[in-house]
Design brief:
dioxygenase activity; alpha+beta; binds fe (ii) ion; AlkB-like_sf; Jelly Rolls; Alkylated DNA repair protein AlkB; binds 2-oxoglutaric acid; AlkB-like; globular; disordered N terminus; ALKBH3
Length: 216
């Protein structure tokens, strides 16, 4: 009886899965650069990865996601997202991430002068998960220009930018379903970024951040 009420469901799931199984990157030809100031920029390419939803499902299932806690004033609070980190030389959880890192390293080789080596992953379970305003300025990025490249999977969430010196949000990029964004130049020192909480009904999103050695 129960199955008869949803006659289309097994077939529908099957066809979606087949389509999504084809995980492949498009070209980087459509990458567009936006200058935030004379020394900081954002490269953006919507829909770089085709089959991004299939990759989302695989990473959601196979990455050993960690829930973390951080001290905040007198209390210990849950970090509002799940995390995983792959340091230099650690095997990545999916060959598509190896390909992404290689392709980005080649594309930016001349400008960056070194490869992307680490991968940080965040899983935003719903609109209550977020990352507060910050720059990735632990380590070398505190003093030197660098790049952080982000591949976004699952439901789009806004990545917002504001100047570190104060002032309102100047740019909000909705990122999900295979979109690529690269923060470059002095972005981590001169600007802050955040994924704000949202009261909209949103599904989960995974962010994969590729960084060069010594950048966090
Ligand atoms: O979710 C994102 O795309 C950004 C994550 C981020 O800024 C970070 O982990 O440093
Ligand atoms: Fe960040």
């Amino acid at each position: 009886m129960t199955a008869a009420r949803h006659p289309a469901l097994p077939g529908l799931q099957g066809s979606l899965f087949d389509q999504g199984d084809d995980i492949r990157f498009g070209t980087l030809d459509g990458l567009r650069r936006t200058a935030l100031d004379s020394g900081s920029w954002i490269d953006h390419l919507p829909g770089w990865l085709h089959g991004a939803d299939a990759l989302f499902e695989e990473l959601a299932a196979r990455v050993p996601w960690r829930a973390e806690e951080r001290p905040m004033y007198d209390a210990v609070v849950a970090v509002p997202r799940l995390l995983a980190h792959y340091g230099e030389g650690a095997p990545l959880p999916h060959p598509a991430l190896v390909e992404a890192r290689q392709t980005l390293s080649s594309h930016y080789a001349a400008e960056l002068g070194e490869p992307f080596v680490t991968a940080g992953l965040c899983l935003y379970r719903d609109g209550r998960d977020s990352v507060a305003w910050h720059g990735d300025r632990t380590g070398r990025s505190a003093t030197r220009d660098t790049m952080v490249a982000i591949l976004s999977l699952g439901d789009p969430r806004d990545l917002a930018f504001r100047p570190r010196s104060g002032g309102p949000t100047v740019l909000r990029l909705p990122l999900g379903h295979g979109d690529l964004v690269v923060m470059g130049g002095a972005c981590q020192r001169a600007w802050e970024h955040a994924v704000p909480k949202t009261s909209r009904a949103v599904g989960p999103r995974i962010s994969v951040q590729f960084r060069p050695r010594g950048v966090r």
